[in-house]
Amino acid sequence: MKRLIGLLAFAAILSFTQNATAQDYKFGHINSDELFAAMPERDTIISQMEDLRTELQNTMEIMQVEYNNKLNDYTEQAETLSEIVRQTKEEELMSLQQRINNFQQNADKQLQQQQMELMQPVIERAEKAIKNVAREGGFTYIFDLSRGPIIFFDEEKSEDIMDKVKAKLGIQ
Q1: Cα–Cα distance, 143 to 28 (Å, whole number)
Q2: Dist CA 83 CA 94 (whole Å)
Q3: pTM recorded for the entire structure
């Protein structure tokens, strides 16, 4: 009896394994960095980011020139200034340096936020196109070659869907 139960369990496991391995999986891959480089929105985003970066750099340079001028004036006059005037100028220099540091930190945050805001619709549009191609093509998995450590993939068993996604997005 124990032997019969063991044989039935073995047969069930064998049947399950054969069914699981008999399924056909369809794999695809894409390089999302290359896809983004081909998207027409890319040039607009790069231009807008450069404009903002230039504006922030110009403001930073103006602040730095102001600081340097005040520092030079202070350095030249330090020995002839009264204690209270010297102390006031030192506080002014420290305050200006702090404003420059705060501006730099806020500028970096603003650049990152602007990039995320500009990129999000493009990323969503690309992801939607990839998902549509995957569904229409019956793919089980789509791997992004630019995002992670894919150590190996067999190009004969994984289809490059770049052209299909570009077509879906209207990119030539």
Answers
A1: 6
A2: 16
A3: 0.69
- The CA distance from 113 to 118, in Å, is 9
**Burial degree of 13 (CB within 10 A; 0-12, 13-18, 19+):** exposed
Q: What is the pLDDT of residues 53-109, one digit of tens each?
A: 999 999 999 999 999 999 999 999 988 999 999 999 999 999 999 999 999 999 999
- CA dist., res. 129 & res. 114, Å (int): 24
Residue 120 tokens, joined: 């999000």
Residue position matching structure tokens 């044989």: 7
Query: Is the Cβ–Cβ distance between 83 and 67 less than 8 Å?
Result: no
Distance CA 141, CA 86 (A): 69
> What would the two tokens of residue 144 be?
């992004």
Residue partners of 28: CB distance under 8 A and separation at least 6: 133, 134, 137, 139, 141, 142, 143, 158, 159, 160, 161
| Separation between Cα atoms, residue 145 and residue 138, nearest integer Å | 19
Question: What contacts 24+ positions apart, CB below 8 Å, involve 92-99?
Answer: 93/67, 96/63, 96/66, 96/67, 96/70, 97/67, 99/63
DSSP, collapsed to helix, strand or coil, labels residue 102 as helix
